[in-house]
Amino acid sequence: MTSPVVALRGVRKAFPTGTLALDGLDLSVNRGEFLSLVGPSGCGKSTALRLIAGLATPSAGAVVWGDDGGATRAPAPGDLGVVFQEPTLMPWATVAGNVRLPLRLTRRRSRLHGDEAEARVAAAIARVGLDGFAAAYPRELSGGMKMRAAIARALVTDPQLLLMDEPFAALDEITRFRLDNALSGLWQGLGTTVVFVTHSVFEAVYLSTRIVVMTPRPGRVAADVTIDAPFPRGETFRTSPEFASLCRTVGGALAEAMGEAFA
Ligand SMILES: Nc1ncnc2c1ncn2[C@@H]1O[C@H](COP(=O)(O)OP(=O)(O)OP(=O)(O)O)[C@@H](O)[C@H]1O
């Protein structure tokens, strides 16, 4: 029996410009899963993520948290981690200073003492493979390292849900593969629920336990595909016939959603 962390129920989102981004979107995010959203450009993937993050509100329908039978209780600060395509680090602060920020914003609630907060920051930095860079400034880091710092910052509060909007899209392919591996390892180790937006069917299949394919705008669910290949999934999986077959299934569902034939 799966238990939802959050569900979008009959969600519609219309912007004041007249754009109808989402209409009739029903999507449950189950505890512990790695869920990817794929879909044509402009179908409302980021909008769906922003609604879950509480950065926007639905025009109709509801965002329902937990098993509370329909209450729309928003999560407490620190229960959510968000990572965008741009790492958005504070340039004047070190890696440790950037990673510490969410703890400073939520410390009163979590009553973390200074030492405990520092230990959490150090652990988060180590988790993403940035040992030795705690005192470095963002300008001293590569694009991949900046993204690792952004992930450490998102994970430092041990969120129950991690939302990621095309986090690796701007990185070169080798760095992207490395970060996919690092993220997959983190997810397996932490048991956090992840919702991940990507344009890459390959990346979605490699990382996910489930992929939701969305229709063109206004977005809703076109297909829901379970990816039940075992973890860890290294290069052996990436080059396997099973991987190729799953990519064909998801690619086919995407082409169908777009009303195209998939060769
Ligand atoms: N704040 C806004 N005001 C007006 N229109 C918006 C706003 N945010 C998004 N949109 C529009 O809503 C639609 C969905 O946008 P969204 O960014 O959610 O799509 P997406 O699937 O994430 O796109 P992409 O894959 O290209 O990143 C688009 O047509 C976009 O232009």
TrEMBL record:
Q: Which CDD domains match?
A: ABC_NrtD_SsuB_transporters
Please give one Gene Ontology molecular function term for this protein.
Answer: ATP binding
**Which domain of life does this protein belong to?**
Bacteria
InterPro entries linked:
AAA+_ATPase (IPR003593), ABC_transporter-like_ATP-bd (IPR003439), ABC_transporter-like_CS (IPR017871), ABC_transporter_ATP-bind (IPR050166), P-loop_NTPase (IPR027417)
Boundaries of every ABC transporter domain copy: 6-243
Any keyword Nucleotide-binding? yes
**UniProt keyword list:** ATP-binding, Nucleotide-binding, Transport
Family per record: Belongs to the ABC transporter superfamily.
Q: What is this protein called?
A: ABC transporter ATP-binding protein
Q: What is the lineage of its organism?
A: Bacteria, Pseudomonadati, Pseudomonadota, Alphaproteobacteria, Hyphomicrobiales
